[in-house]
Write a sequence for this structure.
């Protein structure tokens, strides 16, 4: 997939921040999200302990990657995921290979197979799932803001609408 060089540069900066174990703020299908490496329990806890997010999910670039995290995937789910054109969070049981912090008491986890180009390329280049939570206030943090939003290593610098 050929993408704009500016967008590719932004994705590369995000991937670098994720690999350093830092937060990023980036656009996805649901708007602006705060994210981190889905294997970094410490950062995930900081996001979950804040009150500035909603709809947390583990982002994957393609449905085939679900096999690494779900023991038994129902057959109808494959069609649902492959043919959906809109963002869809999927709650699945029997999750493995993810920090326990991402699971409820029944070992269920929330996943989203991203459809938008920016998060899809981001998760693909990162090579691992990205934990993302939609920001309640759909604006980039301003200098001097307090809380978790003032701590990201990288905030994507693109003029992308708040919601697609």
């Amino acid at each position: 997939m050929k993408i704009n060089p500016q967008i590719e540069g932004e994705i590369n900066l995000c991937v670098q921040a994720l690999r350093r174990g830092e937060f990023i703020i980036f656009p996805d299908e649901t708007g602006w999200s705060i994210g981190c490496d889905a294997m970094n329990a410490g950062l995930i806890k900081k996001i979950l302990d804040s009150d500035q997010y909603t709809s947390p999910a583990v982002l994957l670039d393609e449905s085939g990657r679900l096999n690494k995290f779900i023991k038994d995937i129902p057959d109808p789910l494959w069609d649902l995921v492959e043919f959906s054109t809109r963002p869809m969070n999927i709650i699945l049981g029997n999750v493995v290979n993810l920090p326990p912090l991402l699971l409820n008491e029944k070992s269920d986890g929330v996943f989203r197979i991203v459809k938008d180009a920016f998060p899809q390329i981001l998760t693909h280049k990162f090579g691992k799932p990205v934990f993302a939570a939609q920001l309640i206030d759909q604006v980039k943090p301003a200098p001097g803001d307090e809380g978790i939003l003032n701590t990201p290593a990288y905030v994507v610098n693109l003029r992308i609408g708040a919601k697609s």
About this structure: The chain has four helices and seven strands. The mean pLDDT is 84. The first helix runs from residue 5 to 19. Helices lie at 5-19, 41-49, 75-83, 117-126.
